[in-house]
Amino acid sequence: MLPTLADVLRLDAVRRGEPRIIAGADHLDARVRWVHSAEVTDIAHLLRGGELVLTTGIALPDDPARLRTYVAELADVGVSGLIVELGRKYARELPDAFIAAAEEHGLPLIAWARETPFVDVTEAVHAQIIDAQLAELRASAKLHEVFTQLSVDGAPPAEVVRQVAGLAGHPAVLENLAHQVLAAEMAGSDPAELLTGWEIRSRAVSPEERTAYDESSRWLITVVGARGEDWGRLIITSMDPPSPRDVVLVERAATTLALGRLLDRHAESLERQAHGSIINGILAHAYADPQEAAARARALGVPLTGRRLLGIVVLPRASARPSPPPALGLKDDDATSTDSIADLAEATAAACREANLPALVGTLDESSPQARVGVLASLPSRAVEDDVLCEVARRLRAHHCGTATGGRTTDPGGRTVRPRGGAEAFVMAVGSTVESVRDVRRSFLEAEQVADVAAERTDGRLFYRLPDLRLRGLLHLLRDDARLQTFTERELGPLLTYDAQRGSDLVHVLDLYLGSGRNKVLTAQRAHLSRPALYERLRRIERVLAVDLEDVESCASLHVALLALDAVRKDHT
């Protein structure tokens, strides 16, 4: 941090001249970037701003107008201050025009009563500036070391946020685009005070720059994202205007968070890695020719050509919802650990082998909390699809919960028993059957949609298909997608802000109205409102959102946004 003019005036080399502030006393917080001595009047065009100018005034003009021009030019270029040594040009006082011009332009003007070696002042100030710059370099190096190590270690977001709070000395919060807290570190502050009403307060702070300081909230904010897709914001709260080090800190941390979302941190067997690489390559369209994927799979003993292909997703039920962030004092669910997913992948591969089902088995979304097992099953033309899937599911339950005997789980006496954990242990979701590698991605997308919805069901079924899915389930699956959150904010943001500022319930009324099939009589009953009161609220909603509630497409869009908002909020309660 560069010294201020006030800091410079406290230096011994400066105080020996008995400095007296003549004008601009309220601008002593200006930063001093350099010290420059000059005895000419046309010096401004040689300066870049931030300089403290020293002069004896010997060459300054006597004409008041030219003095005012001299001061104006220095102020325009952004010098931090002007010190004039008395005794040569000016005996005891500076001219009134000189002082008036400095006051007018807010330029600190200081007079030295005694002769002072300019070189002593220059050396003292420059030493302080260089010390400050070295301190900044050391701090930057420290930040680089800390966050590089966090990236190498694959630190979770909660640990990154904890480091930010520790280095900044202020609370730090990581939120998503729906203003829901993903991780927070209090730095000694009261959690209830910081996080209560967070969504409302965060909505009110929307700087235009990617990294900015908001004076009203005292928040330093930066956007978090990579590859052109932003997914959250990192915020340091309760701080005064940030130093350059603080800006480097928050931006470096945001980069670490973005990288952490991209990097692979899961360890699997070589076979699972090979299988997973092919599946993920197909899903990401990494193969220009689908036959390349088929050739790679065939080399691993899984034929994909001339077969019926199925995308299958298997995940532990406990991982259906992300665990609350450890930074809030909550413990991660063991079911979502790397070992759990790796074990489930190995068990799934074993079940497929025992059921004589050729299949690629690997991990999907390995670097995210929603990691799951993906299976690309290759069925012979004569195989009965449901029979094969039931056999695989039974074998997987046996591997997960008990002893496999002909596809059944038995006790020591040979009697069939319900496996420990049973249907609650995991979810097996199946996509549509496709005939070529080109369509495998569609089958997997369907399976993923089914998996997250079925994870909340406990009806004991061996596997689930797409007909179990409805719109709410689809929105639940997409709840962490930045595009869905952006859509929700665009559709409902003004109304949410209106309610937050006025304590009204227009979002609730809109939800009741659309949920009632736009039946105003039924809506009034459910909202416990008179019809005139309901009509007035609906008109107000139309004004705030600038929509026509008689337009079917507008209402459909708003209804989807409300369902998405509900999915996001439920996920973070």
Strand order of the largest sheet: 1-5-4-3-2
Strand content: 15-25%
- The shape is elongated
Number of strands: 16
Point out poorly predicted stretches.
264-268, 319-336, 402-423
Q: Figure out the total of helices.
A: 20
Largest sheet report: 5 strands, mixed
Backbone CA Rg: 34 Å
Query: What helical percentage do the residues reach?
Result: 40-55%
State the end-to-end distance.
42 Å
Helix-strand category: alpha+beta
Q: Mean pLDDT across all residues, rounded?
A: 84
Describe the model.
This protein is α+β, with helices and mostly antiparallel strands. Helices cover 46% and strands 16% of the residues. It is built from 20 helices and 16 strands. The strands form four sheets. The protein has a five-stranded mixed β-sheet with strand order 1-5-4-3-2.
List keywords for this structure.
573 residues, alpha+beta, five-stranded mixed beta sheet, five-stranded antiparallel beta sheet
Write the layout of secondary structure elements.
Elements: H1 5-9, H2 12-15, E1 19-23, E2 34-37, E3 51-55, H3 64-77, E4 81-85, H4 96-105, E5 109-112, H5 118-153, H6 157-168, E6 172-176, E7 181-185, H7 191-195, H8 198-203, E8 211-214, E9 219-226, E10 229-236, H9 244-262, H10 270-283, H11 290-299, E11 308-316, H12 338-354, E12 359-364, E13 372-379, H13 385-401, E14 404-405, E15 408-409, E16 426-434, H14 440-454, H15 471-477, H16 482-502, H17 506-515, H18 520-527, H19 531-545, H20 552-571
Parallel strand pairs: 2-3, 3-4, 4-5
Antiparallel strand pairs: 1-5, 6-7, 6-10, 8-9, 9-10, 11-13, 11-16, 12-13, 14-15
